[in-house]
C-alpha cells in the first residue's frame, strides 16, 4: 500500500485524506496543531512545525510521496523533502504562488493577461503607482494574504494613500490595477505524472466580505471563455511541469475576455462542488495525480451551487440536513469564530 504525506492539517488536508482512504492510500499529516481537522481522517499525524527538520525527515521516512494542502509551505521544507522523495506539486509551484509579484510575472510569461501591477516598498512608490493607474487600484500584501486579508481598494476619491501605506506597509506590497469585471470564475484542473491533463467545468464565484460565499456550475460564460480558461490552466500546468490539482481564479471582463487573478497550487474551495456533481471529486483527482494513478472522469452529471458555512452559518445546519439534493460536509471544528470556514453544502440544482 502507498503512503502519502500531506503538509498541512486543515479542511483541505482532511478531505484529501478521506479521498485517499477510498483508494487504499495511507496518509500521514504534518501539522503543528494537534487535533486539527485532518487528524480525524488521516492514518497518522506528525505534530510539529512545517519547517522542523527532524519532523520533515520523519515524514520522508514514513511516506512514498509528499503533497501539501496550502500554498505557504516553506519552500526550504519542500526542497528538503524533494531530495529524498517525490514532492507534488513541484516546489517551484510554491515559489511562484507565494509572492503576488512573482506569480504575475510567471503568468505573463505564460502569455496570460493579469492586472497591471507595481511592486510597492515605500509611500513614494505607492503614490507613483497610483498616479500610473489613475488613482484606482487594489493594494495587497505580496505574501500570505487569503480571504481578502491584507488588501485595500483605492477608488480615486482623494484618500490619504500615505496613511494606508503606514497601515499595511511594514511588508512588501503590490498595487494592482482595478479590473472592472462582470463576474469571477475559477477552474480546477489536474496534470498526472505522465503529463495527461484534465479540467473540471469552470465555476462562477461570489465573495462576501472577501471570503468565497458561493460557487455555481455552470458559470454564465460563453464557450470561448470556457475554452480560454481551460487553455490557461493547461499552459500553467505544463510550464511548471506540474503534477496534481491546481485552482486558477479569473476575472471575466464585460467583453468576455479573461484576466487571471491568482493561482492556488492545491485543491481549492471553489472546487468543493465536484464532490457532489462529479463522479470523481477534485480531492480524489489530486490523490490520483500525485500517486501516479490515471486521472479520473471530470464530467459533471448535475448543475450545483456550493455554499460555504462560515462562522455562525453553522447554526443553520439543522435546515441544511433536511434539504433535498444537498450534500453537507463539515470540517470537525468546534468553535464557530467569525470568518472561520466550518463546512460547506452543495445543492444539486
Ligand atoms: P483567496 O482567499 O481567494 O486566496 P486572496 O486574499 O488571495 O483571496 P484575491 O483573490 O487576490 O485575495 O482578491 C480577493 C477578491 O478581491 C477577488 O476575488 C476580487 O473579488 C477582488 N479583487 C482582487 N484583486 C482585484 C483587482 N485587481 N481588481 C478588482 N477586484 C479585485
Ligand atoms: Mg489567494
Ligand atoms: Mg483569490
UniProtKB/TrEMBL annotation:
<dbReference type="Pfam" id="PF17769">
    <property type="entry name" value="PurK_C"/>
</dbReference>
<feature type="binding site">
    <location>
        <position position="207"/>
    </location>
    <ligand>
        <name>ATP</name>
    </ligand>
</feature>
<comment type="function">
    <text>Catalyzes the ATP-dependent conversion of 5-aminoimidazole ribonucleotide (AIR) and HCO(3)(-) to N5-carboxyaminoimidazole ribonucleotide (N5-CAIR).</text>
</comment>
<comment type="function">
    <text>Catalyzes the ATP-dependent conversion of 5-aminoimidazole ribonucleotide (AIR) and HCO(3)- to N5-carboxyaminoimidazole ribonucleotide (N5-CAIR).</text>
</comment>
<dbReference type="InterPro" id="IPR013815">
    <property type="entry name" value="ATP_grasp_subdomain_1"/>
</dbReference>
<dbReference type="GO" id="GO:0034028">
    <property type="term" value="F:5-(carboxyamino)imidazole ribonucleotide synthase activity"/>
</dbReference>
<protein>
    <recommendedName>
        <fullName>N5-carboxyaminoimidazole ribonucleotide synthase</fullName>
        <ecNumber>6.3.4.18</ecNumber>
    </recommendedName>
</protein>
<dbReference type="GO" id="GO:0005524">
    <property type="term" value="F:ATP binding"/>
</dbReference>
<feature type="binding site">
    <location>
        <position position="184"/>
    </location>
    <ligand>
        <name>ATP</name>
    </ligand>
</feature>
<dbReference type="InterPro" id="IPR016185">
    <property type="entry name" value="PreATP-grasp_dom_sf"/>
</dbReference>
<keyword id="KW-0547">Nucleotide-binding</keyword>
<dbReference type="InterPro" id="IPR003135">
    <property type="entry name" value="ATP-grasp_carboxylate-amine"/>
</dbReference>
<feature type="binding site">
    <location>
        <position position="140"/>
    </location>
    <ligand>
        <name>ATP</name>
    </ligand>
</feature>
<comment type="similarity">
    <text>Belongs to the PurK/PurT family.</text>
</comment>
<feature type="binding site">
    <location>
        <begin position="176"/>
        <end position="179"/>
    </location>
    <ligand>
        <name>ATP</name>
    </ligand>
</feature>
<dbReference type="GO" id="GO:0005829">
    <property type="term" value="C:cytosol"/>
</dbReference>
<dbReference type="InterPro" id="IPR054350">
    <property type="entry name" value="PurT/PurK_preATP-grasp"/>
</dbReference>
<keyword id="KW-0067">ATP-binding</keyword>
<keyword id="KW-0658">Purine biosynthesis</keyword>
<dbReference type="GO" id="GO:0004638">
    <property type="term" value="F:phosphoribosylaminoimidazole carboxylase activity"/>
</dbReference>
<dbReference type="Pfam" id="PF02222">
    <property type="entry name" value="ATP-grasp"/>
</dbReference>
<dbReference type="InterPro" id="IPR005875">
    <property type="entry name" value="PurK"/>
</dbReference>
<feature type="binding site">
    <location>
        <begin position="261"/>
        <end position="262"/>
    </location>
    <ligand>
        <name>ATP</name>
    </ligand>
</feature>
<keyword id="KW-0436">Ligase</keyword>
<dbReference type="InterPro" id="IPR011761">
    <property type="entry name" value="ATP-grasp"/>
</dbReference>
<feature type="domain" description="ATP-grasp">
    <location>
        <begin position="104"/>
        <end position="291"/>
    </location>
</feature>
<comment type="subunit">
    <text>Homodimer.</text>
</comment>
<dbReference type="GO" id="GO:0046872">
    <property type="term" value="F:metal ion binding"/>
</dbReference>
<feature type="binding site">
    <location>
        <begin position="145"/>
        <end position="151"/>
    </location>
    <ligand>
        <name>ATP</name>
    </ligand>
</feature>
<dbReference type="InterPro" id="IPR040686">
    <property type="entry name" value="PurK_C"/>
</dbReference>
<dbReference type="Pfam" id="PF22660">
    <property type="entry name" value="RS_preATP-grasp-like"/>
</dbReference>
<feature type="binding site">
    <location>
        <position position="100"/>
    </location>
    <ligand>
        <name>ATP</name>
    </ligand>
</feature>
<comment type="pathway">
    <text>Purine metabolism; IMP biosynthesis via de novo pathway; 5-amino-1-(5-phospho-D-ribosyl)imidazole-4-carboxylate from 5-amino-1-(5-phospho-D-ribosyl)imidazole (N5-CAIR route): step 1/2.</text>
</comment>
<dbReference type="InterPro" id="IPR011054">
    <property type="entry name" value="Rudment_hybrid_motif"/>
</dbReference>
<dbReference type="GO" id="GO:0006189">
    <property type="term" value="P:'de novo' IMP biosynthetic process"/>
</dbReference>
Amino acid at each position: 500500500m502507498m503512503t502519502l504525506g500531506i503538509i498541512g492539517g486543515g479542511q483541505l488536508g482532511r478531505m484529501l485524506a478521506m479521498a485517499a482512504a477510498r483508494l487504499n492510500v495511507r496518509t500521514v499529516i504534518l501539522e503543528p496543531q494537534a487535533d486539527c481537522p485532518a487528524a480525524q481522517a488521516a492514518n497518522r499525524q506528525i505534530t510539529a512545525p512545517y519547517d522542523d527538520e527532524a519532523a520533515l525527515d520523519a515524514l520522508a521516512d514514513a511516506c512514498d510521496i509528499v503533497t501539501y494542502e496550502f500554498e505557504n509551505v516553506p519552500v526550504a521544507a519542500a526542497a528538503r523533502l524533494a531530495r529524498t522523495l517525490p514532492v507534488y506539486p513541484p516546489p517551484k509551484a510554491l515559489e511562484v504562488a507565494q509572492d503576488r509579484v512573482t506569480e504575475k510575472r510567471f503568468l505573463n510569461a505564460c502569455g496570460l493577461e493579469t492586472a497591471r501591477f507595481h511592486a510597492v516598498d515605500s509611500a513614494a512608490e505607492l503614490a507613483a503607482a497610483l498616479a500610473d493607474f489613475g488613482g484606482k487600484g487594489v493594494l495587497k500584501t505580496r505574501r500570505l494574504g487569503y480571504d481578502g486579508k491584507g488588501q485595500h481598494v483605492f477608488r480615486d476619491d482623494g484618500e490619504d494613500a500615505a496613511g494606508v501605506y503606514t497601515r499595511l506597509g511594514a511588508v512588501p506590497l503590490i498595487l494592482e490595477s482595478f479590473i472592472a469585471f462582470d463576474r469571477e470564475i475559477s477552474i480546477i484542473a489536474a496534470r498526472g505524472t505522465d503529463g495527461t491533463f484534465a479540467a473540471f467545468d469552470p465555476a462562477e464565484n461570489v465573495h462576501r466580505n472577501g471570503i468565497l460565499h458561493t460557487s455555481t456550475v455552470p458559470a454564465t460564460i460563453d464557450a470561448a471563455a470556457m475554452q480560454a480558461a481551460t487553455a490557461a490552466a493547461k499552459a500553467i500546468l505544463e510550464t511548471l511541469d506540474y503534477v496534481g490539482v491546481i485552482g486558477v481564479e479569473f476575472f471575466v471582463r464585460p467583453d468576455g475576455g479573461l484576466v487571471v487573478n491568482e493561482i492556488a497550487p492545491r485543491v481549492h474551495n471553489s472546487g468543493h462542488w465536484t464532490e457532489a456533481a462529479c463522479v470523481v471529486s477534485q480531492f480524489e483527482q489530486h490523490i490520483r495525480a500525485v500517486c501516479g494513478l490515471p486521472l479520473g472522469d471530470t464530467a459533471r452529471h448535475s448543475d450545483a451551487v456550493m455554499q460555504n458555512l462560515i462562522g455562525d452559518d453553522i447554526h443553520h445546519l439543522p435546515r441544511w440536513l433536511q434539504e433535498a439534493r444537498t450534500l453537507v460536509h463539515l470540517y470537525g471544528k468546534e468553535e464557530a469564530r467569525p470568518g472561520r470556514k466550518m463546512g460547506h453544502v452543495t445543492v444539486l440544482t
